[in-house]
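Protocol step 4 of 6: structure prediction from sequence.
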Amino acid sequence: MIVNNKVLSVIGLAKRAGKTVCGFDAISARARRGDIELLVIASDCSDRTRKDYTDKCAFYNIEHIIYGTKSELGLCAGKGETAAIGICDGGFAGLVTRNLRGG
């Protein structure tokens, strides 16, 4: 997998380090435990899916961003298309947000 985007590269690195979670049920369970630092939601997921994830983020006070496509996030996660990836490490979450700001 070759990713020429710093944000997606950091997400892929977090996945390889075992610091991500995918899938609505798994994300929900980790959100309840307070384990998710940042949720990355694909820009091309359905409105209903986006609302489900953003509502969960609001309820559990989780920072979220809309970024990438389902295919791009799926490549980072080592899966097929995925609508969202939860980052469970503050360091990786900070790297993602810094790279989004161009830092």
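Step 5 (inspection) to follow. The mean pLDDT is 92.
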